[in-house]
Amino acid sequence: MSNEVDAYWSKCYETGRDFRMISSRAISTLLRFANTAQGGRCLDVGCGTGQLTRELYHRGFNVVGIDVSESAIDIARKLTTVSRRRLQYLHLDIECGGLSKLVNQSYDLITCKFVYALIKDKPAFLLKVHQLLAPNGAFVVITPVPEDVPAEKKMIIVASDDMSRLAREFDQTALYQEHGLICFVGRRRRVLTEAA
């Protein structure tokens, strides 16, 4: 695990900084486009303090939230008072083989809120996402609308070329803008291609 990345994000969370929450209505919209049945298994990549993870749990999903920040995971666990069997938080670094620890799992929904832009090796990450998605699983990338993001936080915006990569790697079912967010929803391709 990258201690530097963990230390950076942990310091952010320890000083009270957090990513913007997603409204209940926006979550309903993304679930409608993802068309994933309640009771399915979800993986929330870069879950932070667990807001989206908890929302998905309360909508009937079995959810695993993972994050590189040990402090974020600690906060998420403290904020969670529900069954640990249906909602788990794991301290994993997706850039250092963390997703490989989930290799025997299959997910109906994988979400990536405000994190995709920060991933350095996107081809390797997308290949892992394909491997972890159930046959009809949906992959959702959530990014803020660029005009709504202050200059010091621009690094979390998914660039248009990265959106194009997502559209090449997944069968895109939706790309929409709502509530200051841009959401990409894609399905696992039937035939896996080498990540572009």
Q: Which descriptors apply to this entry?
A:
single chain; 196 residues; alpha/beta; Rossmann fold; seven-stranded mixed sheet
Task: Provide the fold topology.
Elements: H1 3-14, H2 24-34, E1 41-45, H3 51-58, E2 62-67, H4 70-79, E3 87-91, E4 107-113, H5 122-132, E5 133-144, H6 160-169, E6 171-178, E7 181-187
Parallel strand pairs: 1-2, 1-4, 2-3, 4-5
Antiparallel strand pairs: 5-7, 6-7
Helix pairs in contact: 1-4
Describe this structure in words.
Helices cover 32% and strands 26% of the residues. α1 crosses α4 (70-79). It has 6 helices and 7 strands. Residues 192-196 have low confidence and may be disordered. The chain has one domain: Rossmann fold. The chain is α/β, with parallel strands linked by helices. The longest helix is centred in the N-terminal third of the chain and has 12 residues, at 3-14. This is 2-polyprenyl-3-methyl-5-hydroxy-6-metoxy-1, 4-benzoquinol methylase. It comes from Kibdelosporangium banguiense. GO terms for molecular function: methyltransferase activity.
How many individual domains? 1
Largest sheet: 7 strands, mixed
* Helical residues, percent: 25-40%
- Mean pLDDT figure: 83
> How is the largest sheet built, in terms of strand order?
3-2-1-4-5-7-6
Return the CATH class.
Alpha Beta
Distance between the termini: 25 Å
CATH level 4 superfamily: Vaccinia Virus protein VP39
Count every beta strand, where a strand is a DSSP E run of 2 or more residues: 7
Number of helices: 6
